[in-house]
Amino acid sequence: MTLRLLLAMVLVSGVLCADLEQARAEPNLGKRAMLALDHAFDALTQARDAYTKGQNAQVEKWVGEIQESVVLAETSLHETGKNPRKSPKWFKRAESSTRDLLRRLDAFQQSMDSTDRSMLDAVKTRVLQVHDDLLEGVLEGEKK
Q1: CA-based angle 111:114:120, to the nearest 5?
Q2: How far is CA 27 from CA 24, 35, 92, in A?
Q3: Which of 13, 27, 62, 104 is the most buried (most CB within 10 A)?
């Protein structure tokens, strides 16, 4: 039984890493951003599962995946060269997704032991920064 569980965990982690590589390979930059954010949500689920099992090293790995995914999404959207105010489709979706991700990260952090909560501080700060940049871009557009 334990061997099956271990094999399943290895397969799932390999699939999630492949998802981020698949996102990087997506030629459509807007879709790439959404795939990266979907991966961030999957990584958050894996981090929660690892934390409930007491595997803090795995939690830190998944938290790094979340941050990497959010940065990929932000970079992809900026590479489109589009004005978020004039073409808001992907920017609004990303802003909404990062807001939801922040809520889930906060809930996860509150459910953690007080000594472990600092593991999520850096990723929450980065996601908040990306969210604020996206929101500002949609509301204000490019500066003249």
Answers
A1: 70
A2: 8, 12, 20
A3: 62
The single-letter DSSP state of residue 27 is: S
Of 80, 91, 81, the C-alpha closest to 130 is 91
Q: How many beta carbons lie within 10 A of that of residue 41, not counting itself?
A: 15
25-81: pLDDT as tens digits: 898 999 999 999 999 999 999 999 999 999 999 999 999 999 999 999 999 999 999
Please report how the helices 121-140 and 56-79 are oriented relative to each other, as an axis angle in degrees rounded to 10.
20
> What's this model's pTM, rounded to 2 decimal places?
0.82
Place of tokens 């809930």: 107
If one counts every other C-beta atom within 10 angstroms of the C-beta of residue 32, the result is 23
Question: Between vectors from CA 97 to CA 28 and to CA 91, what angle results, nearest 5°?
Answer: 50
Domain boundaries, the chain: 2-140
